[in-house]
Design goal:
The chain is mainly beta. It has two helices and 15 strands. The protein has two domains: 61 residues, no CATH class; 138 residues, no CATH class. Strands 4, 8, 9, 12, 13, 14 and 15 form a seven-stranded antiparallel beta sheet that branches.
């Protein structure tokens, strides 16, 4: 037979009800006042359910059972094992970059380094290439071109007709300051010259005609300003009808050269 269990508090209430309604009211009350019961009489039917007792006995066909009424707590059971820790969640997205902080104060200046070695004295080199398309009518009416300006000195190319077919190219220099000096290697006239000296020829002129070109290279020319602030030497060449022998169109006169200042 299956027995349906009920809570002790419920059984106490059932016992009290059974005793009161079973005709033992005085006895039940006296027993409750003198000593708390530690068990109770219950009647079970064939299905395992509790039914009212008749006094202190069960009716016919019912089974009497004694139920303990103790309310003492049992020992606490052992603590169960601790569960495994959960896995870490995915990392969150990276936050936006913060703003740039203010610039720090400028550091102290470092010590001065040792002086470098002195370089060699430099020189300035300047080149030129100039031409005159058509010759002037005569030596006194040449067509000219400025080849170079070096301090107070001016170097000029002159181109003029010598005869019906011949053309001459010549190079000159002059000064804008008195008491300048010059030296054309291999020629006289070394020394002082002034503004009034006008154009002084460098070396010899060259003469040619269409189909018969000519070329001359001039000797080095040294020029010094009156205060010594400009010192230069010049290398110059002059030509007439370059390229005309091959039938090419060419200027009547042309010059090329360079000068060095120091």
């Amino acid at each position: 037979m299956r027995v349906r269990l009920v809570r002790p508090a419920t059984l106490v209430a059932v016992v009290i009800v059974l005793i009161v309604f079973g005709g033992g009211a005085a006895l039940g009350a006296s027993a409750l006042l003198t000593k708390a019961p530690n068990s109770a009489l219950a009647c079970l039917n064939s299905t395992g359910s509790l039914v009212l007792a008749s006094g202190t006995t069960c009716a016919r066909g019912l089974r009497a059972v004694e139920l303990p009424l103790s309310t003492a707590s049992g020992a606490r059971g052992a603590t169960g094992p601790r569960g495994k820790p959960g896995s870490h969640g995915p990392a969150g997205p990276q936050g936006a970059a913060g703003s740039t902080g203010a610039a720090g104060p400028q550091g102290a200046a470092g010590p001065t380094g040792p002086p470098g070695s002195t370089g060699a004295a430099g020189t300035g080199v300047t080149t030129y290439t100039e031409s005159v398309a058509e010759p002037g009518a005569s030596i006194t009416q040449p067509n000219t071109v400025t080849l170079a300006t070096i301090g107070p000195f001016t170097v000029t190319g002159a181109c003029y007709t010598t005869s019906v077919m011949d053309v001459t190219a010549v190079t000159y220099f002059s000064t804008s300051e008195d008491h300048a000096s010059y030296d054309v290697i291999g020629y006289s006239g070394v020394g002082n010259f002034d503004v009034a000296s006008g154009n002084i020829q460098i070396g010899v002129a060259t003469q040619g005609s269409p189909g018969t070109p000519s070329q001359v290279s001039h000797e080095p020319t040294f020029l010094d300003s009156p205060d010594g602030s400009v010192n230069a030497y010049l290398y110059d060449s002059a030509g007439v009808y370059h390229g005309s022998a091959g039938g090419a169109s060419a200027p009547a006169c042309s010059w090329s050269g360079y000068y060095v200042t120091y």
